[in-house]
Amino acid sequence: MTAVKNQKLTAGWREWVALPDLNIPAIKAKIDTGAKTSSLHAFDMEVFKTDNGQKVRFGIHPLQRNTDIVIYCEADIKELRTITDSGGHREERYVICTTLSLGNRQWPIEMTLARRDNMKYRMLLGRSALRGRYFIDLEKAYILGRTLSKSYAKDRGKRRTK
Questions:
Q1: Residue 24: closest CA among 67, 96, 74
Q2: What is the dihedral of CA 157, 30, 144, 61, to 10 degrees?
Q3: Across the strands, what pairs with 111?
Q4: Residue 43: what are its φ and ψ, rounded to 5°?
Q5: What's phi and psi for 85, nearest 5 deg?
Q6: In Å, what is the CA distance from 158 to each residue of 43, 48, 70?
Q7: Nearest CA-CA partner of 141 in 33, 13, 16
Q8: What number of CA atoms fall less than 13 Å from residue 11's CA on the CB side?
Q9: Residues forming beta bridges with residue 60, ordered by sequence position
Q10: How many other C-beta atoms lie within 10 A of the C-beta of residue 82?
Q11: How far apart are CA 66 and CA 15, in angstroms?
């Protein structure tokens, strides 16, 4: 049996992912096929200009229920977009492009930056980012492994910067 180059893999309804362009080695993401756009928890957002356009600098707490570990990120702003959340509330959010690493695959995705302090997951992975690459098994979690979850074991309680 030969492998198909673009064969779909199976992922669970939540998985550990990495965002290497943002220097985020691991973050737990809820995969939400009902959401079109992906969203990343961000705070202390600061917009600044460069010769190539606008960028945003922001902090992230990559682990749920842990505000001791902080990663500061910078990214080019693609646009400011009005997003309607699951409760029907509309707000403007910065949209960035970054690389997503899920399982053994990597590809560029768009994601919005939003305060997700009251949300259970620091990242929501929407259907636009998946683009048919994975089947989602809604009855399973962490099908692609938990090895990324150990990324912060050595520095629990320490602050990280980019």
A1: 74
A2: -20
A3: 38, 96
A4: -140, 170
A5: -80, 180
A6: 18, 27, 8
A7: 13
A8: 25
A9: 71
A10: 8
A11: 18
Could you list the pLDDT tens digit for every one of the 162 residues in the chain? Answer: 444 455 678 999 999 999 999 999 999 999 988 888 899 999 999 999 999 899 999 999 998 888 889 999 999 999 999 988 777 889 899 999 999 999 989 999 999 999 887 788 899 999 999 887 888 999 999 999 888 778 887 655 444 444
* Per-residue tokens: 46: 């600061």
Tokens standing for 2?
Answer: 């030969």
pTM of the model: 0.86
Two structure tokens written together for 126: 């929407």
User: What is the C-alpha to C-alpha distance for residues 130 and 45, in angstroms, rounded to an integer?
Assistant: 26
Amino acid (one-letter) located at 70:
V
Three-state secondary structure readout of 114-156: ECCCCCCCCEEEEHHHHCCCEEEECCCCCCCCCHHHHHHHHHC
- The continuous run of DSSP H or E covering 34 comes out as none
Assess contact for 30 and 90: CB atoms under 8 A. no
